[in-house]
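Class prep. Sample record?

___
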Amino acid sequence: MSSPPRAETFPANTPAVSQIFVTALSQGPLTRLELARRAGLSPAAVTKAVRPLIKAGYLVESADDDARPALGRPASLVRVDSGRALFVGIKVTGDEVIGVLTDLCCRVLLARRLPLADRAPRAVLATLAGLTQELLAEADGLGVHVVGAGVAVSGDVDRAKGTVRYSPFLEWREVPLAELAAMTTGLPVTIDNDVRALTVAEQWFGAGVGLSDFALVTVGAGIGCGLVVHGRVVAGAHGVAGEIGHVTVDPAGPLCHCGNRGCVEAIAGDAALVDRVRAATGAEVSDAAGAAALAHEGVAGAQEAYARAGEAIGRGIATVANLLGPERVIISGEGLAAYDLFAEQIRNSFAAAAFGSAAQCDVQTRPLPFEEWARGAAATAIQSFIGSGPHQ
């Protein structure tokens, strides 16, 4: 059994301290002058902000021998001590729980998976607690304390209240997951929608670093979208934002589980693709991998289903670009395993539906395994710990 985690408070007593730390965390190592420039603060404010962080061991400052000037001493770089604290990140799917242990810079130190035989909250919590204990035991061997955990769940999640309001894949309604998970793990727990959690990781540690405005679109079992606007992950007034999966792209299209017709998800989600491939080919296809295999074999009905899915996704992405004008759209999710089947249709549909300069948006693909989604959950725990989350 691992030792109980130590309660610890991050020394961010002012917004400037938190801002400097986040800048160093996501973009460092940096000189103090560069920290000041990127954070929009004066050099004096930076000096005041880094002092308590260096004293507490969260930041370190050392000479940059690779940037030695012609005369005088080498420039000093401020960087985060990644080994100062550890975090647990958990991603819950419909059939398994994926967990990672990360350092303070959200680098994955190890990962574990446990199958989920029952989706009831009690069973999920038991599995989650068992997986967390495994990770805590591993952390004991590293001699560094785990100071927080994050849990990512699909659906309508109220991070501020710690409640899963509705998760269609788990069939949950109004589950106070943060409180229950904290009781079973002994750790402070942050919960969030899985796509928003992945967006946090991309904003601070991935393809969104340094960008003020970008979107993350995920394709797979569902079609999700995380939004960063003016440097902040958008949660919406009621905890729901970026639901491009439920943007109608074909009013006469198939019925969606949300009750509307022709939603992007009703055309391009895994379940929709499987149903359409079955209907078009008569084949006994059981999952998305089987549907994609038929399309890769050249079966016309299967290829047409993926082409239509690509068109729907492209139009959904264009809607995001037209409304928000992001610098970049990152496409990810388990559905990228079949990306070659609809990539051209996504590009063409996006180009046709994007208005004016919105078509200049940089659209990238970034395949990420579920361990990266768990890493996103850890990123939300890091956010909460340093007091820089969307609800702080």
User: Anything to note?
Assistant: The first helix runs from residue 15 to 27.
